[in-house]
Design a protein that fits this description.
about 350 residues; alpha/beta; seven-stranded mixed beta sheet; four-stranded antiparallel beta sheet; extended; Rossmann fold; 2 domains
């Protein structure tokens, strides 16, 4: 995953415009039904998908700030990993899944997170429950076995919003098969379905764009409230609790070197060249300031080409190029404002 993706914990939110289009494909019952989003984020997309429905919204989110935002629109939100949460099997009517787009090492094998999340969460769906699966089109083939075996009435559409096109996103609808339906499947049917899914993955950009007016409707069955149980602790909560642990304090005395406080004048005078060397070596990078002025500072060395022109006495024009290195400082403020100083 790219560094900016890691900072966001793999959060690639679905635009609300696309979520509203997805909503038109779903027909909710008049009675309550349970809907869950294992990667709920801030809850905006999940709220749009379940808008004006008698759905009990449940969500799971790693990030503390986004989990707090999602609690405003959901019945219950657990801060933590979906892999640390127990949800009763075959208890959910709607599963909306938009997982991180990354690899996860299981043993010695790297697996796509889209497949890992689907394999973990599809069991929560009751037979007849509806899956709404958002993922990059080129990675659709990684989930072909699960989709072909456990889901029927599948439809796939390309998402056309600019942010969705940037990440090659598609949406897959499917209805969970019952055990009896799975037992009736022949190997030839499964093979044919997997070939179709692999072809859609290869030619994802040729899929029909998700229309404003649905060409199919997926009825969602009714279900009762859920009981979610978290078996883990969020990482930020662990970080807060560690300093209060006696075992951690004893271990840190052995494992962590004591901070060194060095004061005094440098051995030689500090010249501008020394400061520049420290800057481009990332020794001056860091978080600076407080309040509205709090920002991240990052230095780098860039090559600059100066162009000059000289005219000789005979009218000949001579163009000269001179290369030099300059220091560039990039500031990123907490408000999102950026500044580049050269």
């Amino acid at each position: 995953m790219r560094p900016e993706g890691k900072v966001k914990l793999g959060f690639y939110p679905l635009p609300v415009t696309e979520a509203r289009r997805i909503r038109r494909f779903l027909r909710y019952p008049d009675t309550p039904c349970a809907a869950i989003d294992p990667c709920i984020g801030d809850g905006a997309a999940f709220e749009a998908i379940t808008h004006a429905a008698s759905a009990l919204r449940y969500g799971i989110e790693l990030d503390a700030h986004r989990a707090e935002q999602a609690r405003a629109v959901a019945h219950e939100v657990i801060q933590g990993s979906a892999f640390d949460v127990h949800c009763p099997a075959e208890s959910v009517s709607l599963l909306y899944l938009n997982p991180p787009y990354d690899f996860e090492c299981i043993g010695d094998r790297p697996l796509r997170m889209e497949k890992v999340f689907l394999e973990r969460c599809f069991r929560w769906l009751k037979p007849g429950g509806v899956l709404v699966f958002v993922l990059p089109g080129p990675q659709l083939y990684t989930c072909d076995r699960l989709l072909a075996t456990h889901f029927r009435d599948k439809r796939a559409y390309r998402l056309s919003a600019p942010d969705c096109s940037k990440y090659h996103q598609v949406v897959v609808f499917g209805v969970r098969r019952s055990r009896r339906e799975r037992e009736r499947l022949h190997d030839a049917q499964l093979t044919r379905a997997r070939v179709v899914i692999a072809e859609m993955s290869r030619r994802w950009n040729e899929l029909q764009a998700l229309p404003d007016q649905p060409d199919a409707v997926f009825p969602i069955p009714e279900s009762g409230p859920l009981t979610l149980v978290s078996k883990g602790l969020p990482l930020d909560e662990i970080e807060d609790l560690l300093p209060h642990s006696a075992a951690y304090r004893q271990a840190s005395a052995v494992l962590l070197a004591p901070p060194k406080k060095i004061s005094g004048r440098p051995l030689t005078p500090l010249h501008a060249g020394h400061v520049a060397l420290l800057a481009v070596s990332s020794m001056l990078d860091g978080i600076v300031g407080s309040g509205e002025n709090r920002h991240i500072a990052a230095w780098r060395c860039v090559k600059v080409i100066d162009h000059t022109e000289e005219v000789e006495e005979d009218g000949t024009m001579i163009q000269r190029e001179r290369e030099r290195f300059a220091n560039e400082l990039t500031l990123v403020y907490a408000s999102g404002k950026t500044a580049v100083l050269c």
